[in-house]
């Protein structure tokens, strides 16, 4: 469906409605804070954001005899939005505690919302696991968008093909070619099946000892993978819509899980589109790692890498050093910056 372009007044009205919602939520939030005086709260201690639900957070205690237990908390209104993976200072209370400070982040994965405002997705992560599957259909441009965001956040990506048991040589041979295309430019790839268990041990070894996040479309089996990696967690698994071949959302907010041998895994809600509106053309270019060897080699400094004479990227495509699909994907992302 073609995107509906809104005029300035319509955008202003939408933003005003959103601001009114936020203001009402903030007043409720402040009143919840006011119900608890400092004398009602426990001492300051360190915690980890396991998940969040609007104005409330699930905080895992990291100190004391209750280490590992989960407590529901409010967030102080003067703090920036917190996300799963944040390390915080909190004070327990009855019935809810209060988060009073956010500790410095080592990394942050973000995506823009419909108002081109950056929305944090997860913090303090090492790996971004881009999950694809035979169904719903994997789109190279969505993978490339995740890779651009990952490269600009200095995180390590893994392209993970799930539902290997559904892979049909005749119908899905393009998926294996897609993985080989990314392997050729030194991206890590892996094929697994959460149903049969094939490849799960290799995935477990890749994830252990680090903090990773699963990203991808709804229906690719992220929750099923977590159930295979962590038996007993029993996260809700979704099904594909028969009408559209798209996944149904089962994860509504990012949640963090611990591996017994060490390391954490964050499951994020399914994303069908991943906007790049907040990025500059230079940042998009930097996200295509195989382009970097040709930086500054074009005949014209303002080369758009389309049909200009002396374009180093076009020459690289002709020579087989850059895949034509990657150039096409790069141009699609650039075009979307102005839409």
UniProtKB/TrEMBL annotation:
GO CC annotations, alphabetized: cytoplasm
Cofactor binding summary note: Binds 1 zinc ion per subunit.
Listed cofactors: Zn(2+)
InterPro entries linked: G_CP_dom, NA-bd_OB-fold, P-loop_NTPase, Ribosome_biogen_GTPase_RsgA, RsgA_GTPase_dom
Binding site for Zn(2+): 298, 303, 305, 311
Residues annotated to bind GTP: 162-165
Residue span(s) of domain CP-type G: 106-274
Pfam families tied to this protein: RsgA_GTPase
Enzyme Commission numbers on file: 3.6.1.-
SUPFAM superfamilies: P-loop containing nucleoside triphosphate hydrolases
Domain of life from the UniProt record: Bacteria
Keywords (A to Z) from UniProt: Cytoplasm, GTP-binding, Hydrolase, Metal-binding, Nucleotide-binding, Ribosome biogenesis, RNA-binding, rRNA-binding, Zinc
Subunit structure: Monomer. Associates with 30S ribosomal subunit, binds 16S rRNA.
Protein name: Small ribosomal subunit biogenesis GTPase RsgA
């Amino acid at each position: 469906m073609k995107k509906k372009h809104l005029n300035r007044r319509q955008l202003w009205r939408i933003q005003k409605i959103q601001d009114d919602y936020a203001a009402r939520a903030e007043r409720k939030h402040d009143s919840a804070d006011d119900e608890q005086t400092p004398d009602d709260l426990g001492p300051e201690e360190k915690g980890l954001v396991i998940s969040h639900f609007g104005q409330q957070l699930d905080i895992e205690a990291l100190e004391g005899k209750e280490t590992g237990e989960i407590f529901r908390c409010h967030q102080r209104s003067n703090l920036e939005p917190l996300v799963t993976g944040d390390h915080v200072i909190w004070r327990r209370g009855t019935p809810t505690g209060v988060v009073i400070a956010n500790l410095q982040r080592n990394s942050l994965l973000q995506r823009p919302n419909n108002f081109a405002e950056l929305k944090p997705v997860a913090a303090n992560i090492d790996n971004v696991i881009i999950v694809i599957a035979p169904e719903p259909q994997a789109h190279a441009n969505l993978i490339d968008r995740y890779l651009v965001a990952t490269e600009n956040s200095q995180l390590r990506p893994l392209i993970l093909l799930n539902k290997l048991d559904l892979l049909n040589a005749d119908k899905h041979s393009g998926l294996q070619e897609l993985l080989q295309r990314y392997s050729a430019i030194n991206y890590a790839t892996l094929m697994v099946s959460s149903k049969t268990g094939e490849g799960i041990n290799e995935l477990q070894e890749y994830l252990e000892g680090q903090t990773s996040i699963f990203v991808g479309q709804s229906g690719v089996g992220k929750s099923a993978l977590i159930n295979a990696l962590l038996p007993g967690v029993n996260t809700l698994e979704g099904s594909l819509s028969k009408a559209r071949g798209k996944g149904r959302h089962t994860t509504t907010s990012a949640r963090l899980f611990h591996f017994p041998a060490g390391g954490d895994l964050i499951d994020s809600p399914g994303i069908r589109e991943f906007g790049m509106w907040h990025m500059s053309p230079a940042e998009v270019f930097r996200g295509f790692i195989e382009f970097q060897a040709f930086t500054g080699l074009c005949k014209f400094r303002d080369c758009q890498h389309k049909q200009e004479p002396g374009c180093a990227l076009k020459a690289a495509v002709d020579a087989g050093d850059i895949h034509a699909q990657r150039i096409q994907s790069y141009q699609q992302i650039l075009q979307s910056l102005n839409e």
